[in-house]
Every structure is written in structure tokens, then in C-alpha cells.
Design goal:
Helix content is 29%, strand content 26%. The protein is an alpha/beta fold. The chain has two domains: 355 residues, 3-Layer(aba) Sandwich (Rossmann fold), CATH 3.40.50.12780; 93 residues, ANL, C-terminal domain (GMP Synthetase, Chain A, domain 3), CATH 3.30.300. The protein has a seven-stranded mixed sheet. Strands 4-3-5-6 form a four-stranded parallel sheet. It is globular, with a radius of gyration of 23 Å. The N and C termini lie far apart (60 Å).
Amino acid sequence: MPCPLGEAARERPEGAALEAPGLRLTYRELDRRVSLAAGRLREAGLGGRRVGLYLEGGAGYVILLLALLRAGAVACPVSTRLPPQGAAPLLRRAGCAAVVCAGPLPGLRCLRPEEILSGRPAEAPTPGPIPLDRPATVVFTSGSTGIPKAALHTFGNHYYSALGSASNIPLAPGDRWLLSLPLYHVGGLSIVFRCVLAGAAMVLPEPGAPLGSELRRRGITHASLVSTQLLRLLREGGEGPPEGLKAILLGASAMPAGLLEEAVSRGLPVHTSYGLTEMASQVAATRPGAPLEELLTSGRVLPHRELRLAEDGEILVRGRTLFAGYVEGDAVERPLDREGWFHTRDLGELDGEGRLLVRGRRDNLFVSGGENVQPEEIEEALRREAGAEEAVVVPVPDEEWGARPVAFLKGGAPDPARSLERVLPRFKIPVAFYPWPQDAPGGMKVDRAFFRERALGLRRRPRLC
């Protein structure tokens, strides 16, 4: 494929490409800055190597990401929520030759971002054709059920992911996608690829600014949000959707039904979806203008992806967006079955219209008194019936039952157990309800290991309700 950024700079040089507070770059200017930074990366001997990015988000981060790709390197972004002692082992496991970071990381060659973003190299690379099978990024999985894995994606994975997304949520020059997800997450990376391929603008929000005001003030047409962000947007109030807003793509985890009902009643153009790191973001999504009944599903499978269900309900996926494998140093492992399917460990079903309903993680399911308990089912009931803003259910050991559920809640009814009795059998009702911990880790996915450990520490204390 031709270089998407080079093509955008040639076809619409003065079109808006990247905007941040105090900065506006056209595609011509973004292309120039990326080439200069790519030249400096090559002079540093990093062309074709894996290079980590351990930085706070910003316009410089986007330029560095694109510069690594133009230099022929593989970009390996890692979350700054991790301390240096936690990030360094991940980057070493991924085989990174260096990392661009603001401070030192143990055992790694470190380059400061200013070294790459300033100055003029002896030679800046000219964008040329890119093989679709060329490695492009390494993205670390959430690690919510174990140690994060380093998933390797090719240019083709990102390209077909963007094409399939655009077939459902159109994106064109002049559109403006809010870059409100972190770039170390595949959901944030996919925004960059979608926008560059479409010649649309990537817009970075003002740090700490209310989301609703940013959507209006910055003329946003598209946004990607997780449930917490959608909740904040709805709590800001305001009459009707922001003018010009065409689509809000919701993802990362299941959306509470109450949030979706309120979003629809407020006229927000929301799309629910299902995706995973190993499939370079979206696998399925709902169509524009979908009714609430459809939004309570994850929609239909997008082009360039395939999905089927195993006999036990596990979701299996494959297609042109399927990653190249997990990397461990120089080794790459692609854990597929004999027919090329990747087993997601997510459980789901398809309704009569072919729409996907995700039921939860197979890893989260536990047995209580001989009965299967899926925590996500109880969490959804706590949000819907007890009005909880946040809910996490985890098992604790029990001599008689083997395991019993306990819940952590943020907000909601004073007696959540009574609310659940109307909709769940008794063995699924948590035996204890605890307030949401102030030190609970943030992030796009729940850290269930944290809540399991906290529950074990609290199990002998009296239940709140």
C-alpha cells in the first residue's frame, strides 16, 4: 500500500491533520515533521527495530508514533500508569532496542523525545510503498487475567481494521475524531490509522476539560468512549447532542443498559461494539441509527473479520485483522487452532439477526454449590436494578459452597441485595457488598486481580447490607 500519511499530504496538504491545545498541523506539516523525526530515528540506528514509547499523551506522541512507522521501526507503546520498574520488563520482553521516554528505564537504551522531535537529520526518508505484512506495532494486552502479552500487528492488520470500521462508521476529510483513548491501547491506535487513511483530523482534548464542552468547542464529529467517559458526558447535562456530532463508538467493555437508554433518549449517536487487541480493535459493531434493542448487543461482524461460536459459547475470531502473534524477545507465537481461529476466551451468543451478545469472560466464570456463576451477569444486574455506577463481582473461597460472590459498588441503592432478589437466583446474590476502593486502579478494563485480593482481605469483616 502507498504510505497513508504521504498520500494524505499529497492529496490534501492544507487539510487539518492533528490538533492539540495551542497547536494545529496540516497534513503537509505533519508529514514534514514525521519525516524529520524518522530521519533522526534512523540516524540513531533504530530503523527496523522495535522501539518503546513510554510517554504521556500529546501531539509529540502522535508524531513519534508515525515517525517510528516511517523509519521502518515497530512502535511499542506502553502505559505510563505502570511505574518504570513495571514498564521496563515488558519492553525488554518485547525485544525493544530502545525506548523514547522522559526518564531512565532500567536495562534499556533511553532516548528523550526532544532528541527525536527537534533538530534536522542529514537525510529525511521519503515515504514509499509499505508491505501489508510488515510489522507495525506491538500492543500489550490489558493483563486483567494474567501477565500482559505483547501482541504484534502488521500494517495490513491496522489497514483492514480501518477499512472495516469505515464501512460502518463513515469517515471523510473534514471530519474530526477526538483522540480521547490512550495510544498504548489498540482503541487509541486505531483512531490514528482511521484518520490518516481517511484524511480526517485527530483532535487531542484539553487535559481535564469536561468532555461535553470539548465535543462542542472543538467541532468533534467522531469520538471513541468507554463507559466511564460516557457516564461523565451524560452527567454534564446539556440539551441534545453537540452540533455536527456523527458517531460515538463505545467499547473496551460491556455498556450498562441504563447508560445506553439515557444516551439514546438524549439523542447521542452511539454505536456499541466488540473488539480485542488481537484483532486490532473492532470485530463487530452496531450500525448508524440503531435502536436501543440493537445497541444492547455488539452488532454484526464487520468486513475483513470472521467470527463463530464454539460449542461451549466461546467466541472464535480470524480474518485480515488478526494479529501476527505474541512476541517474546525474537520469538513470535501465533496461538491458533488448526483452522486458523483465535480463541478469545470470551463467551457469547448470536441472536436471530446475527448480532453478537457478549456474556462475559470464560476466565471469570466460577462454580458455587455446583452452579456456574458469571460475574458480568451480576454486575449488569447491579447497575440496572440497584442503580450502581460501577460494580465488580469476584469470588471468595467458601467451605460449604466452594466459592461465593462478593461485590464492590460505587453508588446505587442502599440495599442492593433486595434489588437483586427480583431478578437473580439466591446463589448468584453476593454475600457481601463493599464500597468502591479509593485506591482501585484506573484504566479501560477492570483489574479483577486487585478486587479479588481486596475481597480476600475483607472477607471476615461484616457485610454492609
